Amino acid sequence: MMGEVPPAVRRAAALGLLAVMAAAIYMLTLGPLVTSYRAASQALVEAEDLLARYRRVAAQRADLAAELADLAARQAQSGVYLPGDTDALAAARLQEIVNATVESNGGRLRSIQMLPARADGQFRRVGVRMQMTGNITAVARILYAFEAGKTILFVDNVDINNRRARRAREDEDPELLIRLDLYGYVRPEVVG
After folding, report:
1. Is the dihedral of CA 104, 105, 108, 111 positive or negative?
2. How far apart are CA 84 and CA 188, in angstroms?
3. Confidence of residue 99 (pLDDT cuts 50, 70, 90)
4. 10 — phi, psi (to 5°)?
5. Nearest 5 degrees, angle CA 47-CA 50-CA 51?
6. b or e along 156-174 (b: 16 or more beta carbons within 10 Å of the residue's beta carbon)?
7. In degrees rounded to 5, what are phi and psi of residue 163?
């Protein structure tokens, strides 16, 4: 027969049961609340830090806008883009550059035709297709002048033929027929 449980054991069991209940209540209710509070507190600290950084950047907005306007003005004056408010005006300027470059470097322009302008990212690409003649020295100078000039131009689809290949002598500088596409870009509008 079992005897009665001594009062000290009952107290210890009751205290143990009470400790288990307290731990269960903490784990089920208070623990998640404390964890949530800590996470919210950390998120608040990070948000305040981010807000301070945004305020510093916002304080620089006027200075950056003035710097952007200055850069845009200097870029407009740099001459690296084809001037002109329309594609047709830019193509006309490109034709002037072609005529002057070919003539000043010993070539002869045979034909020139405007290519359709097209969007290339945020820029407008304006180009011409041309035919010219000249000896190898003149052609080299012309191509160099196109690519090394102040206005940035790109040479594409180059086709070079010797016009008198059968009749040419070795000591003769042959006249070449060159077909190529030449294009440049119109300065994009600066959005403020």
Report:
1. negative
2. 11
3. very high
4. -65, -40
5. 85
6. eeeeeeeeeeeeeeeeeee
7. -70, -30
d(CA 29, CA 132): 87
Inter-helix orientation angle 31-59/61-78, to 10°:
50
Dihedral sign of CA atoms 67, 71, 77, 78 in order: positive
Closest to 135 in 3D by CA, of 111, 102, 113, 167: 102
How many CB atoms are closer than 10 A to CB 149?
14
What is the longest distance spanned by two Cα atoms in the chain? 133
The share of the chain scoring above pLDDT 90, in percent, equals 35
Please report the beta strands in the chain, taking only residues with DSSP state E, as ranges in sequence order.
Answer: 108-120, 123-134, 153-162, 176-186
Q: Which residues lie across from 118 on neighbouring strands?
A: 125
Tokens of 98: 């072609």
What is the rounded CA–CA span in Å between residue 155 and residue 34?
69
Cα–Cα distance between 96 and 110 in angstroms, integer? 14
What band does 67 get if pLDDT is binned at 50, 70 and 90?
Answer: confident
pTM value surpassing 0.90: no
Specify the pLDDT at position 192.
32
Identify whether the C-beta of residue 157 lies closer than 8 Å to the C-beta of residue 180.
yes
The tens digit of pLDDT for each residue in 34-59 reads 888 899 899 999 999 999 998 988 88
Q: Which tokens is 154 given? A: 């790109």
